[in-house]
Amino acid sequence: MSILGGHGCTMRGCGHLRWCWSSLLLPAVWSVALDLQGPVFIQEPPHRVEFSNSSGGRVDCSAHGSPQPELGWSLGDGTPVVQIPDLRLVHPNGSLVFPPFPAVHYRHDIHTALYRCKAWNQMGQIVSRDVHVRAVVKQKYEVQVYDEYVISGNTAVLRCQVPSYVAEYVMVTSWIQDSSVNIYPNTDTGGKYAVLTSGDLYIHNAGPSDGYKSYACRTVHRLTGEVHSSTYPGRIIITEPKGSVQPRITVEKHVTRQVKAGDDITLPCVAQGFPVPTYRWFREDREQLSPISGGERVSVLAAGLLRISKVRLEDMGKYLCWVNNSAGEETVQVTLTVTAPLSAHVQPQTQVVDVGKEAVFQCIIGGHPIARVSWYRNAKPIVRDSRFEMTTSPEKLTVRPLQKEDHGMYQCFVSNEWEMTQATAELQLGDASPELLYWFTEQTVQPGPAISLKCVASGNPPPQFVWTLDGFPVPDNTRFLVGQYVTIHDDVISHVNISNLKEEDGGEYTCTARNSVSQVSHSARINVYGLPYIRVMPKITAVAGSDLVIKCPVAGYPIESIAWERDGTVLPTNRRQRVYSNGTLVIEHAQRQADAGTYTCQAQNRQKHTARRDVEVQVIVPPKILPIQAMTNLLREGMRAVISCHILEGDLPVTFRWERNGQPLNEQSLGASTRRLDEYSTSLIIERITSSHSGNYTCVAQNVAGLESFTVPLTVNVPPRWTVEPADANVASGQDVMLHCQADGYPVPSITWRKAVGTHPGEYKEFLYEPNVNFYRNGSLEFLHISKDSEGYYLCEAKNEVGTGVSKVIFLKVNAPAYFPQKVKQMQVQKGEQAHVQCTALGDTPIEIMWKVGGKRIGGDVDQRYTIREQLLDDGMVSELAISRTYRHDTGVLSCYASNAYGQDEMVIQLIVQEVPEMPKNIRVNDQQSRSLQLSWTQPYAGNSAITNYIIQYKLVSDVWQAQPLKLTVPGTQTTATVQNLNPACSYHLRIMAENRLGLSDPSEVIQVTTQEEVPSGAPTDIRAEARSSTELFVSWEPPEREFWNGNLLGYYVGYQEQSSLTTVSSSPSTTTHNYNFKTVEVGAQYGGEVLLQGLAKYTTYSIMVQAYNSRGAGPSSEHITARTQEDVPSLPPENVQCSALTSQSLQVSWEPPPLEGRNGVVVGYKVSHQPAEEWYEKDEQETKVTTSLKTTIPSLRKYTNYSISVLAFTSVGDGVRSPPTVCCTEEDVPSAPADIKAVISSANIILVSWLPPLHPNGQITAHTFYMGIIEDGKEDGTHKRILGPQSEVYETLRLQEGATYQFWVTASTKVGEGAGTRVVTITSSNKVPARIVSFSREIVTPWKKDITLPCRKVGIPVPQAVWRLQDRIMETNGRKQINKDGSFLIKDIQHSDEGNYSCTVENVHGSDEIVYSIRVRVPPDAPTLSVVASYVDSLQLQWTNNHDGGSPVLGYVINYKRDHGDWEEMQIEAKANSHTLHNLWCGTRYQLYITAFNKIGTGLPCDIINTYTKGTVPVKPKQSQMITVNSTVLTIWLDSWVDGGCAILYFIIEYCNAQRSTDWTLISNNVQPTERVYNILDLVPATKYQLRVTAHNNAGSTVAVYNFTTLTAEGVTVIPELSPPVSHSREVPFYANIKVIVPVIVSLGFLLGLLGVAVFIRRKKSQSQEAHMGESPSVAQMQNQQNRDQQYLAVRVGSGQQALSIDSASYKTDSADYIEDICPYATFQLSKPPYSESTYSGNVYSGPYHSVRGSFVYHDPKPAGAESYKFRQQKEPEYTKVRRKGGKLRDPHSESQEYDTLGSDSEGEIPGGQVAASQELVSFRHRMAREVGKPGVEESSSSSETSPSDTRKPYPSRKSKNKGQIMGKRQVRSSSGYSSHTEENTFSFSDRIHPPSRFSDSHELSEAECDMSKLGRKSGRSGASTRLSRETSFQIDV
Q1: Structural domain harbouring 602
Q2: Same domain, yes or no, for 534 and 503?
Q3: Which residues form the Ig-like domain (predicted)?
């Protein structure tokens, strides 16, 4: 039962009160909903946000709604924006803040990204427009103004030159003339100066006086606010021409300008020429040019600048500026794009729509251009589907049918290239039909308990529930409780709870949910066991004519039958009655006489128990109205009208009412009355009827059974009357005129027009409607372009059938103003011919005609070429304008104006002067193919005659132009063409001519184009293949025929695939290559090729084909050939190796062959190897049996022993891989005899017998058998036998018989049986107990570092003392060795040094005894001796030899290796190997290696670290002539001219600097990929000296190349460098006052003094005097190199001198014998300290690549020899570094400081202050060598090399490098950067920078003029010196 308390009212009875919950709750719910509102932006972020890194940026976003919306940000891909400290902050109020940041912290994903603001509440979610955030890193820049040459009288243009990388943000604010006068943009300077929005300064009518003025520009950075003025002002240089100069355009010829609507813009058009050219502007409209005349908004400034004020959208288009003088002409084309701000508004902004209906949003958009309109719902894009329909023009979104989830916020986004906007609307759900969410089910229950029925429904508004039982209301008693309530989700829950269920409560229960939209119900039976019972049925009323349905309310269960009776007769009795088994009675079309009465329902169960109940049925009859006659065409105004309404049948009482036109009748306003005649009729009376009474009158009759209505139309006839009376009209000829004539009445009157005959009214004729006369239905008469003929009197008449009608006469007067019958005329004339232009004007005379051109009136004084002639006509005048000789500029519009007293008119004549077209220009190649070229060109001036054809002529470059060259003709409508049938990879000359009907133009400029390559069309030939090894095939071939190359062959693709036995290889070339593996091979010396295919499957047949390729791709494949690799050893072991014991000394082994793919040839046989797998077995020997079968028996094995068995297959080449060991045990057998036995007298009557276990137990010992024989008086007294346990080794027996002799022996037993006995020992009777030892002498083999106890059990009286000796030296208890109380000897933590013979001796007066233990200690193996046998580009071949194995066989080796700045890696090698090749190494890189061996005791010590190099060198720089080409403004860098040095180039760094003005390098890119063959640097200044620095990086390091170059002049002329500076004659300066002289002198003196001091220092070093001298007298360069060595604290190679850069990596290899043994200023020295007394194996088991074995300490003295001192971040005194000792010499095999280190690594980062790095590496001191740069003009390039794979570069794309030193604690595991240690080590570190002693001071500095070449630590030689590889090596020197 549902408990309803707390959710609403609990109802008892009183049915109409049961619904109080819903009536109370639902209004409250709706009142809350009415207050809700979705989010709407108050402050939406802008579309673009730009800021400087120095200022930071902030983007605000706020919104309102109810409830208050939350705000958030997301990226363009939808991911949420998270806070990044110091870079991006998200505030709760919706602001997105970008704090100021240094340039190095710039992140592209943060500072140049797309963001969107989101706002949401429970009503929905909205998203803002795209917010493009862009942070600009502040960069230094300069602005410059260059001098400009101008012909006197022309316009000069000065431009403010801003670097391209900041030009977007820098704008010109003003120009400064002579440092005093400011010229601002958009200011009136009297026409002399104009500053355009681009910042260019235009100086009109430049004369000689202007040449003395200087002009500087001032700019401001709009993000940072920086203001810069040009450093040097610019001037205009006035030139005087010597003759006519054709106009030369000084601005861009084809330019696009963009402007916002409403702004002003000036279109540039400036040229230089003599005479000073004239400028005319035209606008292109539908491919026709029309001249632009000045107006209110459009004006032409001086020198052809076209200014348009308050630009409108219709101003958009192409403008042409035509410049000409007597020497020639030129054109400038400007395309103007006008944008208007975008706007959007969605209608309706809020709408409520019912579920299932249609919702429509219309987006009203504005602005221009509109590129895209999109719709969003709840911040997600809407995708068009069957329910969402999006239409354009207008933009509409239609949602149909509406579903529940469609509510929320809708947005319309409008965007174009420049901006984006949006509008928001809200969709709320309206009324929705009820929907049942839950309902009760049918139940069958016993009476008594309670039951609860529940229904749940949803809808809008929330529905009400009604419960019925068998169609009747739920019984009204206290046992029934009905209630309902509303959940927070607006679901309505209703219950019926029935307590104390009774039989009569059974029946069909129905819950009906109903709201204002519809209703839904659910029914189910509740069956209650019991006798039949029928509930009381109330009186039922039926409506006659409708169906009557009665359901018998039967309770009880089960019920067998339900029947209906009437008057004792069982129904049905006629066709209209139907009775259903569930007790439902249906009577169709109920009738009062036949169907009213009493009906009886009877229910019966199977036991024949019955129940009966009567119900009274009453039938009522609705009214029926007698049809009423229509009242049309009967009444006229003033008559009386009566409408009567009678009913034919219907139950009384009946009520009547009247309606008019569907609305209740208002009697008072109509002047009508109703009169009730009797109970069955009524009348509507209108005493005086008017036209306003017309309408439809309805009589409505109603009683309790229903209602009926009948409608009568009523009309009133009215005679015609004027509504618009016609009137006289006066109109000018040619205009349109409308004569109005309108009347109303009923029926609607007809209106006719007639015209008077003659000039007076009286007689009229029917009006003949002419084509220019229109008659409208409302009576209006329209004359189009009325003429004088239409003048006269007109009669308008209105008639209907009522009365005589109305009429009116009017007069229409027509005046004839001057007008032109032809408004527009076009006339064409050929250039140079005469033109005669006529215009004819009609109208009332007198007429005056005037001609204008370009807005100016034409008269005789305008141009002598013009003459005008006039002539009068009958109806007007004609005027003719003659032009004697036409020029191109005559093309334009001539205006002819005519005027008289009545009006004026204008005629426009477009005069087109035609000529042959100009030559096509701007020829471009749009698409280059191998056999075709697609060209495009700009349509030239067509000569005002449509271009009919373009003729493209072409030839090979090597040919000359013929009279009839190859040509292609295309229509003049297109400006693109494709030239076909060309040859691949050929250079062609092309030119184009335009043709119109007047002739051909001149040929265009010739362009040279090379067709692209095409894939080769021939296959390589003579393919040969041979096997070199089991995995290698050598393939060679010849190139295709030369004519099939189709370009330059770049290489070949060699395809190969395994050939299965089912595949047949066709020898013909095949295009099916998708199953092939391909290898790329470069072209060989003779264009053929060869390749070694490696890594192939062994003993496998391969199908091989070769394809040639060029830059376009691969050609056809060659014939397929086959080859098979050689046989090899099997690479997989035999499978399923199994073994079983046959006997105690034999095993049977079986196996299966290796898998087919692992046999690698024909298996010849198998080798079965076996050896004992016991722990005690230490012999490194295996026995092998060879067989050809798949099973074998191994005999002669040890009994009960585990054997490790492995099987290998072998081919003719050798043995394959062994199978994993399989362990088998032989069978048990009887044991051997116990190894030894002793019998001693331990007391007067006790004999103690001891023995050793058997040497060969041959099984599990189950028991020992003790035998004792007694011999007394020479007679045996029997043998005593006793079974002892398997662990017993001592037995005591009593000596029972005095004087008898005792014999003892012992046997051991296994489950197989009893073994042999020991020797027999005899004891004779004695009363003395001599000293004896019960223990046995033995040899003991043990692993090191264990505790062992040597027992020495003794007997004797008196009790003897045990004395232990080692090599005759008495042992005592001390340290690890001690003698226990029981006499045993304990050795703790046994070491290898503890090996030896230990003896225990006992003695008393009766005797003595001794035993000896031979101790053998097994230890880990010694370090192998490792060497590098061979070095390759990517691999190293290693070899090693074993040393002492520690007494236990070596099980394997571990090789550890690392590259410079890399992590340690390790590789495990099997024991039988003594060599290995490391693959996949970095090219040209130093590697450190060491090896360890391990046995079952542990891992031994590592060998010495070996330093070696893979082959390869740093990149080799090309010559300047190969590397760069330069023109006036562009430098082209040919990166493919670099040689990679054997190691592939990874990337380039490109920098340049202006050698004249700047000392800072400008970084162009720090990650140029080697695939970019050509790289361009743009925007250089003409005739300027520059330096280019290119750094190439590969794995071996980097090479820096510096090139000096000078850009060409603007005219393309090479600048000749100045050999000597210009002489200044202003004044003489003494040399000591000239800083350019004195500074180099002082530096040189200091340099020489330093050299001298270093030389003295070196001389004193006796140890190096023989090695340090060069082979010949040192040159200056050599001395400088020597000095640099000393300055850098490096050990320098002996005799290295100056070496050219070598490709061979051997020159990199380190050999300690080749270096001068200088003591490094920071060398480490060993302090005196006693060595450890322990042996080499000090107790540390090796557990990783680092060992901490015998420790020694090295002291670092922090005090320098000089005034300077080293500054420590954290000072400790004394400081120690722990290193490893070897051979009496201090050395750490793992210290970085002993490696051949590389220069300039990123990984040598500074250690943070206050933090001491716990690293195993020694402190190594490094200093970067400074590199000198050759003086410009002396040395054109310089280079240096670095072996570091990385470099210190600005993080444009950041390159991460791993730190070499990681912070380490106490760990015994591998670390990523080195070794772990078992013991804690103390280390120290120096501070950020080590200051060397003063005598080693490096004071060399470079001048700023050398472009700061030392910044990246590179060095170049002096002039004439060959380039030299400079490397830095850091050493630790051990003393």
Answers
A1: 529-620
A2: no
A3: 39-128, 139-233, 247-337, 341-428, 434-527, 532-618, 623-715, 720-807, 817-910, 1330-1418
Which one, of 1722, 1822, 1826, lies nearest residue 1766 by Cα?
1722
Higher pLDDT, 758 or 449: 449
CB atoms within 10 A of CB 1704: 11
Q: What integer pLDDT is reported at residue 340 of this predicted model?
A: 92
Query: 1063-1105: per-residue pLDDT in tens?
Result: 444 444 444 556 888 888 888 777 888 899 988 888 899 999 9
Please enumerate in sequence order all residues whose Cβ is within 8 A of that of 795, keeping only pairs 6 or more positions apart, or say none.
753, 754, 755, 756, 761, 764, 807, 808, 809
Average pLDDT of the chain, as a whole number = 80
Please tell me whether residues 378 and 422 are part of one structural domain. yes
User: Are 1922 and 1788 contained in the same domain?
Assistant: yes
For 246, list phi and psi in degrees, rounded to 5.
Answer: -65, 145
Q: CA 315 to CA 307: how far, in whole Å? A: 12
Mind listing the pLDDT tens digit for each residue in 123-168?
A: 999 999 999 999 999 889 999 999 999 999 899 999 999 998 899 8
- List the structure tokens of 247: 């106009």
At which of 1091, 1124, 1157 does a domain end?
Answer: 1124
Q: How far is the C-alpha of 1693 from the C-alpha of 1899, rounded, in Å?
A: 24
Is the entire prediction scored with pTM above 0.85? no
Q: Looking up tokens 């309404």, which residue turns up?
A: 645
The answer to whether residues 327 and 366 belong to one domain is: no
Locate 21 and state its tokens: 């919950």
Q: Are residues 799 and 939 in the same domain?
A: no
572 upstream amide cis, omega within 30 of 0:
yes
Whether 1704 and 1796 map to the same domain: the answer is: yes
User: Quick check: is 227 in a domain?
Assistant: no
Q: What is the pLDDT of residues 600-631, one digit of tens each?
A: 999 999 999 999 999 999 999 999 999 999 98
Q: Please report whether residue 33 resides in a domain.
A: no
Q: If you ran DSSP here, which 8-state letter would residue 1128 be given?
A: -
Last residue of a domain, one of 620, 638, 665: 620
Tokens representing residue 395 in the block: 């933009």
CA atoms within 13 A on the CB side of 521: 12
Residue with tokens 């395309």: 335
Burial of 377 from C-beta contacts in 10 A (0-12 / 13-18 / 19+): buried
Q: Classify 655 as helix, strand or coil.
A: strand
Contact 1511, 1484 (CB under 8 A): yes
Strand partners, 1492: 1454
For residue 1712, with 0-12 CB atoms within 10 Å meaning exposed, 13-18 middle and 19 or more buried, which class applies? exposed
- CA count, 13 A, side-chain hemisphere, 1581: 19
478 exposed, middle or buried (CB, 10 Å; 0-12, 13-18, 19+)?
Answer: exposed
Best CA proximity match to 492, nearest among 457, 455, 466: 457
> How many domains in the chain?
14
The residues with which 619 forms a beta bridge, in sequence order, are: 542
Which residues, other chains included, contact 623 with Cβ-Cβ below 8 Å and sequence gap of 6+?
647, 649, 650, 654, 701, 702, 703, 705, 706, 707, 708
Q: 102-111, 1281-1290, 1661-1670: which range is least confident on average? A: 1661-1670
pLDDT at 1730 over 60: no
Residue 139 lies in a domain: no
Q: How many CB atoms lie within 10 A of CB 3?
A: 9
H or E segment at 1263? strand 1263-1272
Average pLDDT value for residue range 103-117: 92
Examine the domain organization and report whether 1233 and 1217 are in the same domain.
no
Residue 1213 near residue 1484, CB atoms below 8 Å: no
Q: What's residue 1148's pLDDT? A: 94
Is residue 226 a part of any domain in this protein? no
**1052, 1108 contact by CB (below 8 A):** yes
